[in-house]
Amino acid sequence: MTPQERRDLEALHEGHEEFFHAETDDVYDVANILDGSKTIDLSHGGGELRDLARDLFSDVKNIGDESLRKRRMDYRTRRDRAQRRTDAFARQMPELVRAYVEWSAANAGKSCSETGRCRNTWPSMDPKVREVQLYVVGIFCAEKRALHLQAEDYSASSALVCQGVIPCAPLRPHTAIMIDALELFRVARNRSPHLSVQAFVKTISDLQGVQYRPYLARLFSIALDVYLQIRLAVNDFVLQALRRDTPDWRLKNACPACTYTLKDEPDLKFKMLFAMDGNDSLKRISREAIGGYESTAKGLGERFLGDDRYLTRSFVDQFGVGCGDESLTQPTDNDNPCAGRWKNMKEDATSRMWGIFDEAGIFMAICRHGFSLVIADIVRSGEQAKYPVAVVSKLLDVFGSNLAGGYDIGCKFQTTLNRSTVGPRAQALNYTSLVPAFHGYAHRRLCQLRFLARYVDGLGLEDLEGCERTFSKTNGLASAVRYASTFHRCQTIGGYIAHNDENDVYQNLTTMILNNYKQALGIIEEGRSTLPRVMNDLGITDVSVFGVWLSEENEYLTARSREPEEETLQMEYWQKLVNLDASRDLAWTVATPSSTATSTFVQKDITATTRKETMRRHALENFEKDLKIVQDIEIKLGVTKRWVPEDEEWQTAGRLVANRKYQRCLDQLESLVVARIFELSKMNQSGTGYKLRKHIAKALKARSAAIRTALDRFNTAARACSPPRPQLTFEEVVEYTFLADFDLLRNATREDISQRPWASPAARAAMDQYFKVCRAEEEIKRLNVEIRRIITYLRDEDRYMRACIAELQVSHPPLAHQVQLYHNVRAKFTNHHICLLTDTIRLPGFTGTALPGESTKTSPGDSVSHPEIIIPSALSIVTTPTSPLTTPESGDGDFDLDEFDADEDEYGDDESALTLQEIIRISSDGYTAQE
């Protein structure tokens, strides 16, 4: 057959179809009418719209029949299908939540084998009950199972949730996942963040003896998203019923020991102690950077688990340019003792790496007991100043005055905060910026005296290093969120941190109280036994002298933190005089003709002569330039006679230059030793892999060689000082642990401080011991307050929740069950807390009280308030179906699950079913009005 003959036959075929449709008046072109390309003629008698609905409904009923099903070309992208599926689930979400609440209450106390079978007991002959076959996946089973639908069910999805399964499609699902399996994965992933959906589905496949296929993980992920959204909505209803849905309620009550204040309790200098820091482990690759696209699906994903902890990007960005958006590594204040010291995150060094990430990490704040307060995403940048400024602004809004926050570079952040728009409010509310204990020892001694935890009154024994402990847990999420969407990343991080707060952190609350009390008592006991003996050896009779020593050291280091301007000019003048002498000698050497020159020299080597003339010209220019600089400095210093090496001023300035070189050699040596200390600590840290240990060991070997070279330069500079400074050996340097030792060497160049009483090692050890005892006594005072708060909270919270549950048992039993589950999250640890608090009270030296107090928090929803239950309107109003219930695809044989694209066709069927519901509703309304 020729191509022309084939085209003629195809034309005849198309003409036949046109003729058939033209002659058939009773058949409507449904697809063209729905997309608006054709119109429908409406007669005066009406009824055409109902006929169209009937026609569409017959197509929907025959979707499962492949013989009647015409395959259409699907031009939708994966993003379009995800968006449509999300929108369909979002429209059904209120009924899914209601169904979950009913199922949870009906199956309370039942075993796993009994859950989801409440409808299987109905008579099979009941005309109001339909039976469908769905592929149900559980932990130990994956089989076709008979599920039941009632006529009064709002949708097939809500009917399935009532039987303990979550559908993988909104209206016509082929597969459903049992809630028990989804809950197991949720808890398991929160306990082991390395667990992924794929690994869990593979585990289920292995248990059931079936082959794992990729589409199974995607089906499970869809059902998991729906389940987590249902749980989030249920939690919202519980908080609404308990009157705990006001803005920032969770933040205001995050930690019982920090926030549950009592009447007539002792005043604390700091109302709340918290730590904040950034972590770059939880990065997320931008899909645009790897040739993909960013997900824009909304509806179901508009909220994520734990989103009340997240600060929005718009909130953080308002503290951006002009309000503190400079990088934290840029110099901000010359008076700051650590200005210019932190250079590990320069923007020009990290811009290429950050370019492939959308979220480059998280920045979070936690209280001293480990409860998370707020989280902010670090977006396409390094750890900029706007993130801690935004955190401080939020906490000041919620908690008010007398807050103290620990930050790795809190000394530098204090200057940045004061210059931002939050600065005046922070100063008015007496906000204090501090440096954590571990990181503080990497700061200069002057910075330690001002910001280190040991020397800050009212701080107790808190080290402000809680973020590091939290990050050691969340780092396990890195592999799960690296290539995730924005929604799934926030869902995973928020869900994990919320679970960690309510389980690990809350469980360890009284453990921390007991351990800190023991530690404080031990420090006090040791101080009382050793400190008097040391004071007697030093000839000290009053402990107040330690405070005087600390002030003297602060004044001494402050006075020498910057070179005097006159000394700086003198050293610059000396250096320029040396340069002038060198340039003069060079100019004279080049300009002086050679004694061996002959009359024939120019003819023999014209190139060499030209080169010498150029060198002479350059030497004269350099001499004139150096001479002009020297003259300018002489005018500034008021020098009437130029210095020569025999002058006293020349020799004094030379000694100052030698001391400066000594200090710079000391800075280089110090930086190498600090790097060695941190590498040793990392090498011995648990969780460090073998390859990283080998890399660190190699770096340490190279670092040791660099330290030896720097040490030689240091000793050379030390010998050049007048008088010569003490030299160091390699063994002494590698044993340095505290950087204060370097600061004493650095500042001993202008004045011999060895005779100062606070400079001797014994005096410094005694001073540190004294301040440790002071902080331990403050810790006892704070712990006594926190113990009474916890005791009162346990009593009030139990009373309030029991009263609310009793009231809801009468008005709304299913909601009462959810409130009971909400209460059990923390109530399961009550006996544990009581036992540890009892052990604390029985400690020798305990000075607090075990009697509960009276809370100052009496707002609706607080534990001490009177229960005022509110039934959420979404749970009190019963929604009736607006259309005939769409029956899930059952089929007689096994459907093809091997190709997930086949399942995606069901989403198009769901769209047709949704359109059918709307058409029937409109036609029914019009018909009723006509009647």
Protein described:
The chain is an alpha/beta fold and 931 residues long. The C terminus is likely disordered.
Main attributes?
7% strand, 931 residues, 4-stranded mixed sheet, globular, 6-stranded mixed sheet, alpha/beta
Topology:
Blueprint: H1 3-23, H2 30-34, H3 48-61, H4 78-106, E1 129-137, E2 142-150, H5 156-161, E3 165-167, E4 175-178, H6 179-191, H7 197-208, H8 214-241, H9 249-252, H10 256-259, E5 272-279, E6 284-285, H11 313-317, H12 347-354, E7 357-367, E8 372-379, H13 386-399, E9 403-406, H14 410-419, H15 423-428, E10 432-434, H16 437-440, H17 445-451, H18 466-474, H19 478-481, H20 486-507, H21 509-538, H22 544-559, H23 565-591, H24 601-604, H25 606-637, H26 648-683, H27 690-720, H28 730-734, H29 740-747, H30 761-811, H31 813-827, H32 830-841, H33 873-876, H34 900-930
Parallel strand pairs: 1-4, 5-9, 9-10
Antiparallel strand pairs: 1-2, 3-4, 5-7, 6-7, 7-8
Concise structural overview:
The chain is of the alpha/beta class and about 950 residues long. It contains 34 helices and ten strands.
- Structural class designation: alpha/beta
H/I helix tally: 34
Note the main sheet: 6 strands, mixed
The rounded Rg comes to 38 Å
Low-pLDDT stretches are 9-28, 59-69, 116-124, 296-306, 324-329, 343-353, 681-688, 890-908, 926-931
Net shape: globular
Distance between the termini: 61 Å
User: What is the residue-mean pLDDT, rounded to a whole number?
Assistant: 75
Q: What is the number of E strands? A: 10
**Approximately how much helix is present in the residues?**
55-70%
Give the amount of beta strand, in percent. 5-15%
